[in-house]
Amino acid sequence: MARRCVEMLINEQIRRYNEKLEEIEQLEHAEALAVNQLKLKRQNTVHEKKCSDLTVVPENDEPLDSDTEAEKNLMERIKSIKQEK
Questions:
Q1: So where does this one cross the membrane (predicted)?
Q2: Strand, coil or helix: 47
């Protein structure tokens, strides 16, 4: 009887451990996606700036508010994912 209880406890711990590993893998995947999105966003911003520098003198040198907001959101998402891990 005691052996069966120990087996049940061990199996439950293994199940929880496997769930936690799966959650961590999902978080790492989400983090990688967010980092890649941020990297692409920054590359596009630099590329657009270079293209606009060649054609027209921009009125302001700062990125659009939507670009800044998107970068901020991605950075906060990455930070949140790291904290959750």
A1: none
A2: helix
Crossing angle (nearest 10°) for helices 65-84 and 2-55:
160
Average pLDDT over residues 51-67: 59
Angle made by CA atoms 31, 36, 42, in degrees to the nearest 5: 125
**Mean of pLDDT over the chain:** 82
43 occurs within a structural domain: yes
Average pLDDT over residues 14-35: 94
Q: Please count the structural domains in the chain.
A: 1
Per the CB < 8 A criterion, the answer to whether 85 and 24 are in contact is: yes
Instruction: For residue 59, report the phi and psi dihedrals to the nearest 5 degrees.
Output: -70, -35
Model pTM greater than 0.85?
no
Tell me the one-letter amino acid at 45: T
Residues 74/34, Cβ–Cβ less than 8 Å: yes
